[in-house]
Amino acid sequence: MLWQSSVHSTLWQKYLDYTNDTTAGDIDTTGYAIEAGYFLTGESLKWKKGYTSGITPKSKYGAWQIAARFENMEIDEISGNATSGDEADKFTLGLNYYPTKNTFDVELRQNY
């Protein structure tokens, strides 16, 4: 799912739900991610039929975008009456630089 506003920002969402049936039991995997970005220099992504055609910087010095993403994944193994599982979270902050038209992309990111 994608949301884009007129204030030069984007918001992405993803969701995963998968079950693997094995002879020893089921393995359930669920996860999601949400990402948001804002162009500091006023650009916006151009979309056509669900695909982006890139970014055209308004300046000869390129376009700058700040971005943040949160991801979660949980894996549960169900064997008989017992359930065991693991879960992981990831948070990413980023500063993206697009030096020329349709450059995807030169990125500086710090992950936490």
Automatic annotation (TrEMBL):
What is the recorded name of this protein?
Uncharacterized protein
Q: Which domain of life is it from?
A: Bacteria
Species this protein is from: Shewanella glacialipiscicola
Q: InterPro entries per the record?
A: Porin_dom_sf (IPR023614), Porin_O/P (IPR010870)
